[in-house]
Design goal:
The complex is a heterodimer of chains A (542) and B (112). Chain A is of the alpha+beta class and 542 residues long. In chain A, 35% of the residues lie in helices and 18% in strands. Chain B is mainly α and 112 residues long. Chain B contains four helices and no strands. The radius of gyration of chain B is 14 Å and the shape is globular. Chain B starts with 10 loop residues before the first helix and ends in a 10-residue tail after the last helix. The chains are: A alpha+beta (542), B mainly alpha (112). At the A-B interface, strand 5, helix 5 and helix 12 of A face helix 1 of B.
C-alpha cells in the first residue's frame, strides 16, 4: 500500500514541481475541463461525488462545469489554467466533514479546503494541484461563543469578519475585531490559518488564536490546547495545553481540517487616534524604518505600521492612465505630482495610538519628535479629514470594514490580475532600501509597476508588493507569471523568502526553505495522511 | 473585453458615499448559522462595499437584467470576485438580482 501511495505522491509531486516551477499547465479550459487527480479513474471520481451527495445533499455538491465556475475565478497568474478544481462539496456540520474525509480516503479523492475562499491575490478557492474537489466550509458559519469579559470568541470557518462585527455591534459588546484587507467577505478562521495580518494591536492573527478543533485526515476529531479536557473553561483562554504545542501545525498546512477556532478580541479602547506620516521621497525608506522600529519594539506604537508607497495608494482609487499615458513608464515625477495633488507623500505611514486620554497624550509627543526628525510630516484626522486614503486606513486600524483595496484590480486595462508577493526581512532600513531597488528592477523589466508597501510588524518587515496586471491580455498574463517567478527566485537568493504565497507559487517558495524542512513536513504529512487526500501541494507539502 | 470599472471621482465624494451607506444588521444568533438575508442586507454587506463606492460601477437604477446579475455574481467579471452559492445562497441571489433590476439610483453612490 505504501508503495502505491508513494507512487501517487510522486505523480502529484512531479506534477506540481514540473508545472509550478516551469509555468507549465494542464491545458484546462472551458471546453477542456480540468483533469482528475493522478491515479483516479472517472469511476472513482463519480463514486466520490455520489457519496458526497449522500452526505450533504445533491444541492451542495458541484461537479459540472457551470456549477464549478464560481470556484475557478482567480486573480493570480495562471496562464495555462493549472489551478482548476474538479468539483466542490459544501458541508454544514463537523460530522459531515468527518464523513466527507472518510469518503475521500475511500476513493483517494483529494480535497482542497477553503473557509470563505476570499484571500484574493493568493488564489481564492483554486487548488495548488489539479484534480482536487474544493471542501467549501462557508456553510459552517456559526458564532459559537463570545465572552465579553475575557475578550474571546469561538468561531466556525465560514464566519466572516462582517458577521462577527455585526454580532458584536448588535449585542453591544465592546470588543473589536482585527480585519485583513477584505474583511467583509473573508474569514477570521481562514485568515488566521494562512497566518494573515491586520491593522490593530491584535494584527498578528495567529498570535491571538487560542484553541482549535480539527478533523484529522483519518476522520478523527481532535481539540488542541485545553479543548480535550472535559469541563475545562480555558479552551479559549490558555493557548498551550500540555505537551507539544501543535496548533501551528495546522496553519499553512494540509494536516487537518480546522472546524472551530478560538480567537482573542481586543477590548475597545477609550481613545483611538490614527496618524499618517508623509515622507516626500522614495529614498526616505530607510529613515522611516529606522525611526519606526524602536517605537514598535518598545510597543509605544502598538499596531503594525503600514508604509504605503504613493503608487500603491494611487492604484486603490485611480486608474494608471490618469497618472501617465498608456504604455508610458510610471515615472517618479508623475507619481509625485499625482501624490501631492491627492494629499499624499511618496511614502505614507499609518499607525494609531490606543489607550486613555492620558496615555495617548503622553506618548504622542515622543512619537511626533521621532518621526518629524526622520523628515516626515505627522498628520492626524484634523489635517486629513475627507482624504479617502486616510479614511481607509483609519477604518482598518480600528477594525472597520471596507473593500477599498479591490480597487487595485482595475489599475491596468480591464484588470482582474493581482498576485501578492510578500518577502520577509528583519526591520532594518538598509534591507528595505535594497528590496525596493531589486523589486523595481524586476517588475519594470516586465513592464509592470512598483505598487508596494512595507509592513513593520514587530521586529520584522514584510514587503508587500501587489503585482497588478491585466488578466484579459494574454501576453500581459504570461509576463506576470514570469515576473512573479523571478521575484520569488531572486529575492529568495538574497535571503528574502515569502511568509505567504499564492497557489501558483507554493512549490517554488517551499523549495527555498530547504530539503530538511521539506522532509520534516513530508514525514508528518505521510504519517497523518497516508492517502494524501488533504490539499496536496498546500505550502508545497505533498 | 468590456470594462466594468468606471472613472475615478473626487476623493471627497468617495467618503461621502461611505457615510451614506448605512449598515444593515444581520441579526445572527449565537450558535446558529446565518439566516437567509434580504436583498438590501446582501447589497449592503457585500455588493455595496464596491459598487457605488468608487471601486465598482454603479449597478442600482440601471435596470440590469436579473439573469445578467446572477451570471456576473457567480462568475465574477474582471476585477470582481465570483460569489459561490455558499456565500450568496441561490434564493438570496434570485431575490437580489430581481431587486437590483427593479432598483432606483441612490444619490449617495458614485462610480461609472
Amino acid at each position: 500500500m505504501s508503495e502505491i501511495n508513494m507512487d501517487r505522491r510522486g505523480l502529484l509531486g512531479a506534477g506540481i514541481i514540473g508545472a509550478a516551477s516551469l509555468g507549465l499547465g494542464t491545458g484546462a479550459s472551458a471546453k477542456n475541463p480540468a483533469p482528475l487527480a493522478p491515479g483516479l479513474t472517472k469511476a472513482d471520481f463519480s463514486g466520490a461525488m455520489k457519496a458526497f451527495r449522500g452526505v450533504v445533499g445533491a444541492e451542495w455538491v458541484f461537479g459540472d462545469e457551470d456549477a464549478v465556475a464560481p470556484y475557478t475565478k482567480t486573480y493570480i497568474p495562471d496562464p495555462n489554467g493549472y489551478h482548476k478544481p474538479v468539483g466542490a462539496v459544501c458541508p454544514e456540520s463537523v460530522e459531515q466533514v468527518q464523513e466527507i474525509v472518510r469518503i475521500a480516503n475511500t476513493y483517494r479523492q483529494p480535497l482542497w479546503t477553503v473557509s470563505t475562499g476570499k484571500n484574493m491575490g493568493y488564489g481564492m478557492t483554486a487548488p495548488a494541484t489539479p484534480g482536487q474537489v474544493v471542501l467549501d466550509l462557508k456553510r459552517m458559519n456559526r458564532i459559537l461563543e463570545v465572552d465579553a469579559d475575557l475578550g474571546t470568541c469561538l468561531l466556525e470557518p465560514g464566519v466572516t469578519y462582517q458577521q462577527l462585527k455585526d454580532y458584536l455591534v448588535e449585542n453591544n459588546i465592546p470588543l473589536w475585531i482585527d480585519v485583513p484587507t477584505v474583511g467583509p467577505i473573508a474569514s477570521p478562521v481562514g485568515n488566521t490559518l494562512d497566518r494573515g495580518v491586520g491593522y490593530t494591536p491584535y494584527g498578528e492573527h495567529f498570535m491571538f488564536q487560542c484553541g482549535m478543533e480539527v478533523v484529522l485526515p483519518d476522520g478523527q476529531l481532535m481539540r488542541t490546547g485545553m479543548g480535550s479536557i472535559k469541563g475545562s473553561t480555558a479552551w479559549q483562554a490558555f493557548k498551550w495545553g500540555y505537551g507539544p504545542y501543535v496548533d501551528g501545525l495546522f496553519t499553512q498546512s494540509n494536516y487537518g481540517v480546522v472546524t472551530k477556532m478560538g480567537l482573542w478580541l481586543m477590548p475597545k479602547p477609550p481613545v483611538y487616534k490614527p496618524f499618517m506620516v508623509r515622507h516626500p521621497n522614495m529614498e526616505d525608506t530607510p529613515k522611516i524604518i529606522e525611526a519606526m522600529r524602536p517605537l514598535r519594539v518598545s510597543s509605544l506604537v502598538a499596531n503594525c505600521n503600514l508604509m504605503m508607497s504613493a503608487s500603491y495608494q494611487l492604484a486603490m482609487f485611480k486608474r494608471r492612465n490618469e497618472i501617465v499615458p498608456d504604455g508610458a513608464p510610471l515615472d517618479e515625477v508623475s507619481l509625485k505630482k499625482a501624490a501631492k495633488a491627492n494629499g499624499l507623500g511618496m511614502w505614507n505611514t499609518y499607525f494609531a495610538l490606543y489607550g486613555t486620554e492620558q496615555t495617548v497624550a503622553a506618548i504622542e509627543p515622543i512619537i511626533r519628535a521621532q518621526l518629524t526628525a526622520s523628515g516626515g510630516e505627522v498628520m492626524t484626522a484634523a489635517e486629513m479629514e475627507g482624504n479617502p486614503w486616510f479614511h481607509h486606513h483609519s477604518t482598518l486600524m480600528e477594525g472597520g470594514l471596507n473593500l477599498d483595496e479591490i480597487g487595485l484590480l482595475r489599475w491596468r486595462g480591464a484588470g482582474g490580475g493581482l498576485a501578492w508577493f510578500a518577502p520577509v526581512a528583519a526591520a532594518r532600513g538598509i534591507e528595505a532600501e535594497r528590496q525596493t531597488a531589486l523589486a523595481k528592477e524586476i517588475v519594470e523589466k516586465y513592464g509592470f509597476d512598483y505598487t508596494a508597501a512595507y509592513a513593520i510588524g514587530w521586529r520584522d518587515l514584510h514587503h508587500i508588493l501587489a503585482l497588478l496586471f491585466d488578466k484579459s491580455d494574454a501576453e500581459e498574463h504570461r509576463k506576470a507569471d514570469a515576473c512573479y517567478r523571478e521575484l520569488v527566485t531572486r529575492f529568495g537568493a538574497q535571503g528574502w523568502a515569502s511568509y505567504r504565497t499564492g497557489v501558483n507559487s507554493m512549490e517554488l517558495v517551499a523549495q527555498q526553505y530547504g530539503s530538511v524542512n521539506r522532509e520534516f513536513n513530508a514525514k508528518i504529512k505521510h504519517a497523518l495522511d497516508p492517502n494524501g487526500i488533504l490539499a496536496p501541494g498546500k505550502s508545497g507539502i505533498m | 473585453m468590456k470594462r466594468i470599472f468606471g472613472p475615478i471621482l473626487a476623493p471627497t465624494l468617495a467618503v461621502a458615499a461611505m457615510a451614506c451607506a448605512a449598515p444593515l444588521l444581520a441579526s445572527q444568533k449565537l450558535g446558529e448559522t446565518q439566516e437567509l438575508r434580504a436583498p438590501e442586507a446582501v447589497y449592503a454587506k457585500t455588493c455595496g462595499y464596491c459598487h457605488g463606492r468608487n471601486v465598482g460601477p454603479i449597478i442600482l437604477g440601471r435596470a440590469i437584467p436579473a439573469d445578467t446579475v446572477k451570471y456576473i455574481v457567480r462568475h465574477g467579471q474582471n476585477g470582481m470576485p465570483a460569489f459561490r452559492p455558499t456565500e450568496v445562497k441561490p434564493s438570496e441571489l434570485d431575490a437580489l438580482a430581481l431587486w437590483i433590476e427593479k432598483s432606483t439610483a441612490r444619490s449617495g453612490e458614485h462610480g461609472q
